[in-house]
Design brief:
D-Maltodextrin-Binding Protein, domain 2; about 300 residues; alpha/beta; 3-stranded mixed beta sheet; single chain; 12 helices
């Protein structure tokens, strides 16, 4: 083979190699271009205020991983979120209580199915001003019943003779608030039990902490994730002498009896909606919930299993 033949052979190999590289480049570019042109699927999420901050973080992490989907959060309440989901205004609703028969009837009327996913655990905390906590560190189910529902306990002196002043009861509407409905059910057995007539109703959960921190005679209920140094959480028990604090350990051990589950609801489980639900239930999503004060499902289940 002459030198000229060798040079021609090398040139042919070079041309073939270059052509293959160019073809591969155009194939990759084609698919990237089409991916970038794919419509962005918007996932509108709303509902529980208690879960709002955690879900902002969930959405931010999810959006970073998904080019063609974006999760958008709003806040209102569990009840309003479920109603908006059924009306088609949301793709996912957050909730601190499960759905009711009324919700199911509304969904059937709208010809929609409801999918329920348990995502974590937390608890309700009975909060008071730090000045009251110096004299009162525990409260019972019966005392709460007589403070919030009958009015038989209406002065702080009835809880501790060293105190005085009227008890200011702050509540949310149990028709819309998952926290209020859960508290009612745990204390009275019914989610919509009427509060005392003097109870002061607040529109949103985020008003509760600043209200109690500025009212030395106030008492209210929030999810444990809301607690900050401006308020104090009382230990709670179903009877006097056996009270427990709303700590992770006592919630897991089923000693603190104001624990609850949190949920997300949807009318579909495919596409971007299904991907977001899977993300929240994934180790990454559960880690985010833990960072915001909630107890991941796997931790709770492992602890309960270990007790058996």
């Amino acid at each position: 083979m002459t030198e000229r033949d060798i040079m021609m052979s090398r040139f042919k190999y070079f041309c073939v190699f270059t052509l293959c590289v160019l073809i591969a480049f155009f194939i990759v570019a084609y698919f990237q271009f089409n991916d970038s042109k794919a419509p962005i699927q918007r996932i509108h999420i709303g509902g529980s205020t208690t879960l709002y901050s955690a879900f902002l973080a969930e959405a931010n992490a999810f959006n970073k991983q998904h080019k063609n989907a974006i999760a958008i959060n709003s806040q209102s309440s569990t009840g309003e979120g479920i109603d908006k989901l059924i009306r088609g205004e949301l793709q996912i609703a957050r909730g601190t209580k499960s759905i009711t028969f009324s919700d199911i009837r509304k969904a059937k009327k709208a010809k929609k199915g409801l999918h329920i996913f348990q995502i974590d655990f937390d608890a309700l905390a009975i909060i008071v001003h730090p000045s009251k906590y110096k004299k009162i560190k525990n409260i019972t189910k019966n005392q709460l019943y007589n403070i919030f529902y009958t009015g038989k306990i209406h002065n702080w002196s009835q809880l501790n003779s060293a105190l005085k002043g009227p008890i200011h009861v702050y509540v949310r509407d149990p028709n819309v608030s998952g926290t209020a409905a859960t508290f009612n059910k745990l204390i009275t057995g019914k989610p919509k039990t009427r509060y005392i007539s003097k109870a002061i109703r607040l529109k949103i959960t985020t008003e509760i902490i600043p209200t109690i921190s500025n009212d030395k005679d106030g008492i209210s209920v929030v999810g444990t994730s809301f607690i900050n140094p401006g308020v104090k959480a009382l230990a709670y028990g179903t009877k006097k002498g056996a009270t427990y604090k709303p700590t992770v350990e006592e919630i897991i051990n089923n000693e603190y009896k104001l624990a609850r589950s949190a949920y997300i609801f949807s009318t579909q489980t495919k596409g971007a909606v299904g991907e977001f639900i899977s993300f929240v239930l994934s180790p990454h999503g559960q880690k985010i919930l833990k960072e915001y004060g909630f107890i991941p499902i796997d931790v709770f289940q492992l602890e309960i299993k270990g007790k058996q």
